[in-house]
Protein backbone atom coordinates (compact mmCIF):
# COMPACT_ATOMS: atom_id res chain seq x y z
CA UNK A 1 0.00 0.00 0.00
CA UNK A 2 1.38 3.40 -1.01
CA UNK A 3 2.00 5.94 1.71
CA UNK A 4 0.16 9.27 1.43
CA UNK A 5 3.10 11.60 2.01
CA UNK A 6 0.95 14.73 2.08
CA UNK A 7 -1.16 13.25 4.87
CA UNK A 8 1.97 12.13 6.72
CA UNK A 9 3.41 15.66 6.48
CA UNK A 10 0.23 17.13 7.93
CA UNK A 11 0.19 14.56 10.73
CA UNK A 12 3.82 15.41 11.48
CA UNK A 13 3.04 19.13 11.72
CA UNK A 14 0.03 18.65 13.97
CA UNK A 15 1.34 15.90 16.25
CA UNK A 16 5.04 16.72 16.43
CA UNK A 17 5.19 20.49 16.01
CA UNK A 18 1.95 22.24 16.90
CA UNK A 19 1.33 19.89 19.83
CA UNK A 20 4.78 20.79 21.19
CA UNK A 21 4.32 24.54 20.96
CA UNK A 22 5.52 25.53 17.50
CA UNK A 23 3.15 28.34 16.48
CA UNK A 24 4.91 30.47 13.85
CA UNK A 25 2.63 30.17 10.82
CA UNK A 26 5.48 30.77 8.35
CA UNK A 27 7.57 28.00 9.91
CA UNK A 28 4.64 25.58 9.94
CA UNK A 29 3.75 26.43 6.34
CA UNK A 30 7.34 25.89 5.21
CA UNK A 31 7.58 22.54 6.94
CA UNK A 32 4.23 21.51 5.47
CA UNK A 33 5.77 22.05 2.04
CA UNK A 34 9.06 20.17 2.48
CA UNK A 35 8.90 16.70 0.91
CA UNK A 36 11.18 14.96 3.44
CA UNK A 37 10.62 11.61 1.73
CA UNK A 38 12.59 12.93 -1.27
CA UNK A 39 15.67 13.57 0.86
CA UNK A 40 16.06 10.03 2.18
CA UNK A 41 16.87 6.71 0.57
CA UNK A 42 13.85 4.85 -0.83
CA UNK A 43 14.18 2.27 1.94
CA UNK A 44 13.59 5.02 4.52
CA UNK A 45 10.69 6.81 2.82
CA UNK A 46 8.16 5.25 5.19
CA UNK A 47 10.02 6.86 8.10
CA UNK A 48 10.53 10.28 6.49
CA UNK A 49 7.95 11.99 8.71
CA UNK A 50 8.84 10.22 11.95
CA UNK A 51 10.05 12.27 14.89
CA UNK A 52 13.70 11.40 14.34
CA UNK A 53 16.71 12.38 12.25
CA UNK A 54 17.39 10.07 9.31
CA UNK A 55 20.55 9.33 7.32
CA UNK A 56 20.83 10.98 3.90
CA UNK A 57 24.23 9.62 2.90
CA UNK A 58 27.83 10.76 3.24
CA UNK A 59 27.51 10.34 7.03
CA UNK A 60 24.94 13.17 7.13
CA UNK A 61 21.39 13.26 8.45
CA UNK A 62 18.19 15.14 7.77
CA UNK A 63 17.33 16.66 11.14
CA UNK A 64 14.41 15.75 13.36
CA UNK A 65 11.42 17.86 12.20
CA UNK A 66 10.79 19.29 15.66
CA UNK A 67 14.39 20.50 16.02
CA UNK A 68 14.27 22.19 12.61
CA UNK A 69 11.01 23.95 13.51
CA UNK A 70 12.18 24.90 17.00
CA UNK A 71 15.48 26.40 15.83
CA UNK A 72 13.89 28.14 12.85
CA UNK A 73 11.16 29.65 15.01
CA UNK A 74 13.65 30.68 17.70
CA UNK A 75 15.86 32.66 15.35
CA UNK A 76 13.00 34.03 13.29
CA UNK A 77 14.30 32.75 9.98
CA UNK A 78 11.63 32.19 7.38
CA UNK A 79 13.89 31.35 4.47
CA UNK A 80 16.47 28.72 5.21
CA UNK A 81 19.19 28.35 2.57
CA UNK A 82 19.80 24.85 1.28
CA UNK A 83 23.42 23.80 0.92
CA UNK A 84 24.64 22.92 -2.60
CA UNK A 85 24.91 19.18 -1.78
CA UNK A 86 21.34 19.14 -0.46
CA UNK A 87 20.11 21.14 -3.45
CA UNK A 88 21.76 18.62 -5.80
CA UNK A 89 20.34 15.68 -3.85
CA UNK A 90 16.85 17.21 -3.85
CA UNK A 91 17.05 17.94 -7.58
CA UNK A 92 18.13 14.38 -8.33
CA UNK A 93 15.34 12.93 -6.17
CA UNK A 94 12.75 15.30 -7.65
CA UNK A 95 13.67 14.24 -11.15
CA UNK A 96 13.14 10.56 -10.36
CA UNK A 97 10.34 10.74 -7.78
CA UNK A 98 6.62 10.84 -8.31
CA UNK A 99 5.44 11.25 -4.70
Low-confidence parts, pLDDT < 50 over ≥5 residues? none
User: Pairing-aware structural class of the strands and helices?
Assistant: mainly alpha
Query: Using DSSP, what is the number of strands?
Result: 2
Count of DSSP H/I helices: 4
| Quaternary organisation | single chain
Could you say which overall geometry the principal axes of the C-alpha atoms support? globular
CATH class, named Alpha Beta
Measured by DSSP, the beta-strand proportion falls in: 5-15%
How many individual domains? Answer: 1
Round the mean pLDDT to the nearest integer and report it: 83
Attribute tags:
single chain; 99 residues; mainly alpha; Rossmann fold; two-stranded antiparallel sheet; 4 helices; 2 strands; 45% helix; 7% strand
Q: What's the quick description here?
A:
The protein has 99 residues and is mainly alpha-helical. The chain contains 4 helices and 2 strands; from the N terminus they run H-H-E-E-H-H. The chain is globular, with a radius of gyration of 13 Å.
Can you walk through the features of this model?
By secondary structure, the protein is mainly alpha-helical. The protein has a single domain, classed as Rossmann fold (3-Layer(aba) Sandwich), CATH 3.40.50.150. The protein has 4 helices and 2 strands. A two-stranded antiparallel sheet has the order 1-2. A hairpin with a 2-residue loop joins strand 1 and strand 2 (60-62). The mean pLDDT is 83.
